[in-house]
Sequence to fold (598 residues):
Amino acid sequence: MDSVSYYLQESKKYSYSDFQKAKFYLYKADKIARKNKDRNSIAEVMLQFAANYYINGDYDIALKNYIKAAVICQVENNKLGLAKGLMGQGLIQQVYGRDKEALKNFEKSIAICRALKNEQYTIKNLLNIGVSQTNLKQYEEAYRSFSKSLKLSERFKYTNDAQLAANKLATIHFVKNNIDSTIYYYQKVLNDSQKPNLWEEAYALSGLSETYLKTGYYSKAEQYGLKGFKAAKIVGAKWDIARSSEILSKIYYQLKDFKSAHQYLMINKIYNDSLFAESKIREVNILQLEAKEAENEKLEAKAEAAQQKLKSTRIFVGFIILLLVSLSIFTYYYYKYNKQKGKFYKEIDIKNREIQSQQTLITSQNIVLEELNQTKNKLFSILSHDLKTPINSLVQVIELNKQNVLSKEEQEFVFEQLQKQVEGTSLVLNNLLKWANSQIDGTNVHFEKIVLNQIIEESISSFYAEVVKKKVTFNHNNDKTVFINADIGQTRIIIQNIIANAVKFAPLNSQIDIFYSYDEKYQKVHIKDFGNGLNRDKITEILNFNSRLSSEKGTSMEEGTGLGLLLVKQFLINNKGELNIESEEGQMTEFIISFLKE
Fold:
């Protein structure tokens, strides 16, 4: 049955378990809605898109869909749709810590829902209000909101909402140190006759793990913690993975299993770093949207005022004209009025030109600010991605050494590995500082004769820790010296990013081949990994893009910022070089970088 409602229901089935499949059904629903030109159906699809992106952590995309849907629903007088849009906007504000503003949207939404006697969204708004009250440390008010939502959910048999409310009540009791009540509500979710969705299951399992950790029952804490971590990984919710891995790290530390404690601490750091980098980028998007909304409000107010003024002017002019036609004896005054009107319009024209000039200036300033924002975001993301993990590793090793948990042989091995990683990180930092300087002062390319294979060897050394971890070997054809004509700093960034990409997507226990070729104009270096490869559409996207790509996970679930290939393309253009990609799906990917000959 091909209908909008059918595909919406199919999408909702996978909202918490398979984001891509949920999107697949939504695209079908959207196609039918737009073909039928049904604006209310289009808005419903947008609301579900927003909900799915919210669950997946893509809050900026979710917010855009909630705002668009709310506008359509307001025009179409779709009150329930408007209530959903307002609630969704409140959820995004909640994510970014703007709970006071979020409460205003939830209160507007719940007022509409109560007027419509819609129990389902009344319950959802009560839950959201309780979350914001919790974030604002208004625990008594939050307890009342969650209790009301649980009571209504059980009365009208909204099981999913009842499970969510029980989880939140458990959180309130945990904060108040009511351990028995905390365990009761978490178990209420897990033992429900209707199995909870993976998101709520992961939350309850990790909550029980944290509770038993607090009371010293480490065996039970470990049992529930591992289950919670597994469920969070299946859902793919980064916040829940970060939460469960942090709890497990603390449990294993108490159990003196420092290896496992370190393992889960590293997982926590990776997901926290990823959430931090994404939040920085998305905070800029949120601020831009807020600025746009504020600008639209000002423009609407100006337009309304201008329309009112124009209406008043027309009435006044009509009255004067009628008076002059009726009373010809006032010809002199009529002439004077026309003269004054001409002066008035001239003044308006001057004012309009001034406004246009100011708008042009503001537009140019916004372009400059946008470029500065993009540069800042690049720098923050790269520093977080390339420096924070090695520094955290250094802190962890120092902490372990202070606790005297390492044997002499383990110390020697760990410090040897750490020295190599720090040396590699030092090289990365030097390259980053050179890149940052080029972004601040403007790109200044200095062409010189460079030994390309020496730079490649240095870059390989900087990835020592990742290579050892994945048991990857390099087959570098380094028989003779290879010279190119390029900027040495930018060349290092190019090579380092391509090798990093190869290491990221290389399978465990595999090798990376590096060899050279040349033609009349270019000296070429080939960097080849034997991972899953790329399809033709992805290769075309990489070669044609002009902005940051979305980063994909590596073979060992490595995260990235998506800036690496953008820098490669930018710096190759600066150095009059070229980038080509050859790939066979399921077998290999080969990046071919062409530099000018010496």
The chain has a mean pLDDT of 83. The beta strands are 448-451, 473-476, 483-486, 511-518, 522-529, 578-584, 588-596. The CA atoms of residues 14 and 500 lie 34 Å apart. Residues 331-402 form the longest helix (72 residues).
